[in-house]
């Protein structure tokens, strides 16, 4: 690489730093904002009807409401289903403490937790890459 091309690359790098956030940062902010809007607003218009898996397991049964709880009558796979371990968790069933009017807030909290987990994974990967780069340069 010539001195002239090295200087040109360095100038381009300096220009990118001076112009502000990178395209990656802009993309991540826009993506996060979209996810929060969808989780917070669109979740209120989501169907309360069973999804494909629930509908399939309930074939052959009739769902009736008894004392505020759903009860299955007939013969279907869903009758042998049990509550999962996290059924009593604060954000179970896309609600907060069982309050279905807080679905949007539960969605936002869930999206924030997913982004936090993503950022932890990205940090771990980046630290691993930096260590690999340092060891390969010093070798």
From TrEMBL:
Pfam families in UniProt: PDGLE (PF13190)
Compartments reported by the entry: Cell membrane
Keyword Lipoprotein: no
Transmembrane residue ranges: 25-46, 104-126
Start-end of Polar residues biased regions: 7-20
Residues annotated as domain PDGLE: 26-125
Keywords: Cell membrane, Membrane, Transmembrane, Transmembrane helix
Main location: membrane
Protein's UniProt name: PDGLE domain-containing protein
């Amino acid at each position: 690489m010539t001195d002239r091309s090295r200087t040109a690359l360095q100038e381009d790098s300096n220009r990118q730093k001076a112009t502000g956030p990178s395209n990656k940062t802009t993309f991540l902010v826009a993506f996060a904002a979209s996810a929060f809007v969808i989780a917070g607003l669109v979740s209120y218009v989501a169907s309360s009807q069973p999804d494909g898996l629930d509908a399939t397991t309930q074939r052959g049964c009739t769902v009736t409401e008894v004392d505020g709880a759903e009860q299955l009558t007939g013969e279907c796979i869903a009758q042998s289903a049990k509550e999962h371990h996290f059924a009593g968790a604060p954000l179970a069933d896309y609600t907060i403490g069982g309050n279905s009017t807080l679905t949007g807030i539960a969605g936002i909290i869930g999206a924030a937790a997913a982004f936090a987990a993503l950022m932890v994974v990205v940090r771990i990967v980046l630290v691993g890459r930096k260590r690999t780069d340092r060891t390969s340069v010093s070798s």
